[in-house]
Design a protein that fits this description.
Elements: H1 7-22, H2 26-29, E1 33-36, E2 39-44, H3 52-65, E3 71-76, E4 94-98, H4 106-119, E5 124-128, H5 136-139, E6 158-160, E7 163-167, H6 174-177, H7 182-194, E8 203-207, H8 214-222, E9 227-232, H9 236-251, E10 256-261, E11 266-267, E12 274-275, H10 282-289, E13 294-297, H11 302-309, H12 314-317, H13 322-341
Parallel strand pairs: 2-3, 4-8, 4-9, 5-7, 5-8, 9-10, 10-13
Antiparallel strand pairs: 1-2, 6-7, 11-12
The protein binds adenosine-5'-triphosphate.
Amino acid sequence: MFFSRKPDKTVEHLAGLVAKYYSLPIEETRPWCRQDNDKLVVTLPFCAATQHQRLRQHIEDSLQAKEIHAAVEVTQQIPSAQTKLPGVTNIRNIVAIASGKGGVGKSTTSINLAFALQQEGARVGVLDADIYGPSIPIMLGNTSARPASVDGKHMQPIEVGGLVANSIGYLVPEEDAAVWRGPMASRALKQLIDETHWPVLDYLIVDMPPGTGDIQLTMAQQVPLSGAVIVTTPQDLALADAQKGIAMLNKVNVPVLGLIENMSYYQCRSCGAKEYVFSHGGGTKLAERYDLPLLGAMPLDMQIREHADSGAPLVSAEPDSPLAEAYREAARALSMTMSLTLSARTDETNIKGDPIGVRFQ
Ligand SMILES: Nc1ncnc2c1ncn2[C@@H]1O[C@H](COP(=O)(O)OP(=O)(O)OP(=O)(O)O)[C@@H](O)[C@H]1O
């Protein structure tokens, strides 16, 4: 029978089902659940669009087993995390992707994670803060693109594949930026963030410069970051540098949201065996030591490199591949961690609406 129980009991039952599905306490899932006329609605505070259908089916089956026949809708709405600094216009969350050391795959991870978040239904922008070695334009295959300006004061971000992006690489030749001193580099980042006409974004992914020096510290202090993800490879040396990254972020009170271990293993294409080229288990141990989630462990894979280097990141070029799913899993884990661990901003006065009519897919 349709809604055989009292509505609040049905909603409570729904919250219990969702809690069990995600292995969370019911207190967490209760605010996500409501009844809207003859429909039960679950609004997830994180992006997981590819999983909605499965969750809906699970709920409907469980309700039917209890003789409750109701239409179920699963949707999502991503909140803004509270930050000490005022929010940037139209951006709900700024997430820095940092690494203690260069060359660990921070930019590759940033761009694939950005596409993965987008495929999970979030509105995403990418900002290349790697002033001294901007690689996002190469990875997006649009090095000759230049941001337009309608009012002479703001830049339009570059749109590509459902993302918007800006990078110092679109604005000045690499050799010019390479000689900038720290304060100039920090100023350039601040300008890139504040003077871009961002459409409404759930996440702005910031590809930080590698390392943990003064530049990174100043950048982390000047930008209202919701949090940061540390990318590392499994070797001891990289892990030692990742620890420095965590320490730096702790120093400026930027929440470390989790770790991504890149080049974690190599999987043989013929026999499927995994080889731990750069040692094994380092990311897990580091995550345990700092009580952080390991959001993902990405393999060392030729396809990841070829796609990144040829301007068509794997997640957007081959969305149906197992590797793209691995990035989406990391994206869902990141988004969920943010919603569960960060306090949401109560007002969203910085969200003003899209100034440039970007049409997200
Ligand atoms: N998982 C992976 N498998 C194979 N190649 C990878 C992987 N991740 C990154 N690479 C390759 O490694 C190289 C360095 O990657 P990337 O530029 O992302 O590193 P980075 O940490 O951002 O470097 P930098 O310190 O210069 O900013 C690139 O050629 C990239 O394609």
